[in-house]
Specification:
This protein is an alpha/beta fold. Helices cover about 35% and strands about 20% of the residues. The strands form six sheets. The protein has an eight-stranded mixed sheet with strand order 4-3-2-5-1-6-7-8, with helices on both faces. An eight-stranded mixed sheet has the order 23-20-19-18-24-27-28-29. Strands 12-13-17-14-15-16 form a six-stranded mixed sheet, with helices on both faces. Helix 13 (about 365-375) links the parallel strand 15 (about 350-355) and strand 16. It is globular and about 75 Å long.
């Protein structure tokens, strides 16, 4: 099964086939060996703030040294976003392999599982096979009858803010919905409850008592605001100065919820240091929630898709930008109250760029443009999202993209493509400005610096590369490595979009690959596994002083490095390739070092 076949199979059982109940998920997981029984969980239910709370918890647990799974829905950027281990999306080949195994069992069932039930089973099997110490598990809808509720006792059951939602499934009152969401509470677990409506808190407290679960009400005052700007919210908690790079006052409440859960985990014996808390919160990433994609010019992305979300967006604009006017790139669904949404952001708008989200329920961009023009606004319609993003960046003015989660992923990827194209062009020109003599001198000096890294000196197997035009030439390093008994391997870019590493045989035979780069002939070389390598040397187009890097765009190295998590990752570049800030994506692998002819940066 290929990745595309896996996605097609999963999506064949759409939301419309969803039928609340646990029987199908229980049967499917039992057929798969009940992988969920070998895992520990923090189970998170609620109407609002689930995703942000899960992201903070997973980041802190990861920094505490635990191999941490994260299961969320729906996805914003790509399907793989739903299944993460230690902050990395599931690899496409892994998703295909696990889905194929789940398909065999699901197709043998008389009552076929729905899409969400399939994904839940895929997640449980994947997290077990990855050896996760703990999984942060977000409920899809409700709680009691949600397919994630097949787990046994979680370490902590977290109930975030509850509102009226999915009333056709969950109940018509807050009390009924709270009862449903409180169905994730099980005997012996700890319960963390967001301090929301009194009737909700009362229900969750009662359920905790019924099941003998320790109840903890979130104290919002435990998080004391200190400052805020576009880099995030800074606050004090238990004497610690913390920053979370998520914007909005409500994120302080979500942080208090996550930290209450961390305290509960500590009481249950989980070793989570204060340093892990501070670092984990600072590294939290949660896309399309008033997210700063870039600052030159400022580009904000929010997946807000209803009047309540639009009001929050407007409040944040006032909080962070005051009276500054923005270019607003927007698209909406026709069944949403888009007129109320636009009314909230109108005072902040200089002009509107209208697009049609990728949904059968989308309002056509021309209709939205005409409505905004009827209000006296400057508005234009664009054929697609990439052209609208391009136009927004060209204005040189602050930009807000909002209106629908269905367009958030396309906006984000289009923005990164635009910015990365500009950054690549700048860096390529910068290194080409160097003379051949300078490049040779700088390459030799960089090679010497590379030999001083302790990981390189201790390494047995090193994955290096052969330079393409204008890249750092590591010939001097390769000579040193061979003289010191290191095994060197080199990459081959395969037709399937992945990269493999080969060690030359006793009689070296080289080919020239599709990018004109010299690479080993696989027929006369030895294939190496990613886990064989102690050090992986990664060429780049550009880098920054925070360890960010951009490549040529194919993503070969990021996919390969993801398969070698224990290898030391060293980015190789000329100093001329330095950028103030690299435009990073969630799939970009972080570096342990950046080495140039002038310095060694360690992260």
């Amino acid at each position: 099964m290929t990745y595309q076949e896996a996605i097609a199979y999963i999506e064949d059982y759409t939301w419309s086939t969803t039928r609340l109940g646990l029987d199908r998920t229980v049967e499917l997981l039992h057929r798969l060996g009940d992988p969920q029984k070998d895992l520990k969980f923090v189970h998170v239910a609620g109407s609002n703030g689930k995703g942000s709370t899960c992201a903070m918890l997973a980041s802190v647990l990861r920094e505490a040294g635990y191999k941490t799974g994260l299961y969320t829905s729906p996805h914003v950027l790509c399907f793989e976003e739903r299944l993460q281990v230690n902050g990395r999306y599931i690899l496409r080949e892994d998703l295909a392999a696990v889905t194929e195994r789940v398909k065999v069992e699901a197709d043998a069932m008389e009552d076929h599982p729905s899409q969400f039930e399939l994904v839940t089973a895929i997640g449980m099997l994947y997290f077990k096979e990855q050896g996760c110490d703990i999984v942060v598990l977000e409920v899809g809808m409700g709680g009691a009858l949600d397919s994630t509720n097949v787990i046994d006792m979680p370490e902590v059951a977290v109930i975030t803010n509850i509102g009226l939602e999915h009333t056709e499934f969950l109940g018509n009152t807050l009390e009924e919905i709270a009862m449903t969401k409180g169905g994730i509470i099980k005997p012996g677990c700890d319960v963390v409850c967001y301090n929301s409506a009194p009737e909700v808190v009362s229900i969750i407290r009662q359920l905790s008592g019924v099941w003998g679960a320790a109840f903890h009400l979130v104290d919002f005052d435990s998080v004391k605001p200190m400052s805020h700007d576009l880099s995030g919210e800074t606050f004090e908690w238990n004497g610690l100065a913390c920053n979370v790079p998520l914007l909005g006052d409500y994120q302080l409440h979500n942080a208090a919820t996550a930290l209450t859960a961390i305290s509960a985990l500590r009481r249950r014996g989980w070793d989570i240091s204060d340093d892990a808390v501070v670092t984990g919160l600072a590294k939290t990433r949660w896309p399309a929630r008033f997210e700063v994609l870039g600052r030159e010019p400022l580009f904000l992305l929010d997946g807000g898709h209803n009047p309540q979300c639009a009001e929050v967006v407007a409040e944040n604009l006032t909080k962070y930008l005051g009276d500054e006017k923005l270019v607003i790139l927007t698209g909406v669904l026709s069944d949403k109250d888009y007129k109320a949404m636009m009314a909230s952001v109108l005072p902040h708008a200089e002009q509107f760029l209208c697009v049609t989200p990728d949904s059968p329920r989308a309002l056509d961009a021309l209709d939205l443009r005409d409505y905004l023009r009827s209000l006296g606004c400057s508005a234009d319609a664009y054929e697609d999202i990439p052209s609208a993003v391009h136009a927004a960046i060209l204005t040189g003015k602050p930009v807000l993209a909002f209106g629908s989660l269905y367009m958030a992923g396309d906006v984000r990827s289009s923005y990164y493509k635009e910015k990365k194209t500009a950054q690549r062009k700048y860096c390529m020109n910068a290194r080409r400005m160097q003379t051949p003599e300078e490049q040779k001198e700088y390459s030799a000096e960089l090679s010497r610096k590379l030999t001083t890294l302790p990981e390189v000196q201790k390494a047995t197997h090193i994955f290096s590369y052969m330079a393409m035009q204008d890249e750092v030439d590591l010939s001097v390093f390769h000579d040193w490595a061979e003289q010191n008994g290191k095994v060197l391997s080199y990459p081959i870019s395969m037709q399937n979009g992945h990269m493999e590493a080969y060690t030359l045989g006793e009689e070296p035979v080289w080919n020239y690959g599709k990018y004109g780069i010299r690479e080993p002939n696989p027929d006369f070389s030895i294939l190496r596994k990613p886990e064989d390598f102690d050090v992986i040397l990664v060429p780049c187009v550009g880098f920054d002083e925070d360890g960010g890097r951009i490549g040529h765009g194919a993503g070969y190295y990021d996919r390969y490095i993801d398969r070698a998590p224990d290898a030391c990752r060293v980015c190789i570049a000329f100093e001329a390739q330095k950028l103030e800030k690299v435009v990073e994506e969630d799939t970009d692998m972080p570096m342990d070092y950046v080495v140039t002819e002038k310095r060694v940066l360690q992260f």
